[in-house]
Amino acid sequence: MARQLKCPRCGTLNDKENTVKDNGRYYCPHCHEEKLKDDALRKLTKSYKKCDKCGKEFKKDDMVQVGSKYRCESCQKIQEKINDDRSELYDYICQLYETDVLHPLILKQMEEYKTQRKYKYKGMLLALRYFYETLGNTTENSKGIGIIPWVYEDAKQNYINMKNANKSLNEIEGDLVEEQIVAIEVPQTIDFEKMELINIDEL
């Protein structure tokens, strides 16, 4: 009697000629088909990763690896914009206080305004510019950026007004320099050879 082999998947005994060998193990035909499907699904699953920001799944090759995590391109661009805005805000505050490194108090205020008040770094920068540049205040009696919540909405409205004013100005300038098409009549070419000669003595 031929030796029978046990399928590692379903446990049934099969003659060797009725099995399929895969990676040193013998499967019954049905179980081997199921194994191939599972392997393909497992491989497909490994090729997809969940974005650490939006939570959606994308192909691993189309994502950006950040440490041990993966991020979709859209979320990565947003994060890069946030990082750029934070750096711009950081540099501006350094300029205001004439320092290269910000005090921990200011860093704490920046993060609290972002997480608790949902302020954007760009908005905080506009608020500071509005207070110090537009209103002409100084940092003489300031130790941090606590003024931001007090002027944030005013600064936002001022920014909106400026944008609308610039838009209107651009529209006016566009009307003033609007291209005009002028039709110029080109005189007909005179054929001197066909003209009759004039005898001055007859005049």
Protein architecture, described:
The structure is a single chain. With 203 residues, the protein is mainly α. It folds into 2 domains: 46 residues, no CATH class; 97 residues. Helices cover 48% and strands 12% of the residues. The chain contains 5 helices and 8 strands; from the N terminus they run ββββαββββαααα. It has a two-stranded antiparallel ribbon. The protein has a two-stranded antiparallel sheet with strand order 3-4. It has a two-stranded antiparallel sheet with strand order 5-6. A hairpin with a 2-residue loop joins strand 7 and strand 8. Helix 2 runs parallel beside helix 4 and helix 4 packs across helix 5. The longest helix has 29 residues. The C terminus is likely disordered.
Task: Walk me through the topology.
Layout: E1 4-6, E2 13-15, E3 20-22, E4 25-27, H1 29-46, E5 48-50, E6 57-59, E7 64-66, E8 69-71, H2 73-97, H3 104-115, H4 121-134, H5 148-176
Antiparallel strand pairs: 1-2, 3-4, 5-6, 7-8
Helix pairs in contact: 2-4, 4-5
What's a quick, concise take on this entry?
With 203 residues, the protein is mostly helical. Helix content is 48%, strand content 12%.
Number of helices: 5
What percent of residues are in strands? 5-15%
The major β-sheet equals: 2 strands, antiparallel
The total domain count is 2
Q: How many β-strands, per DSSP?
A: 8
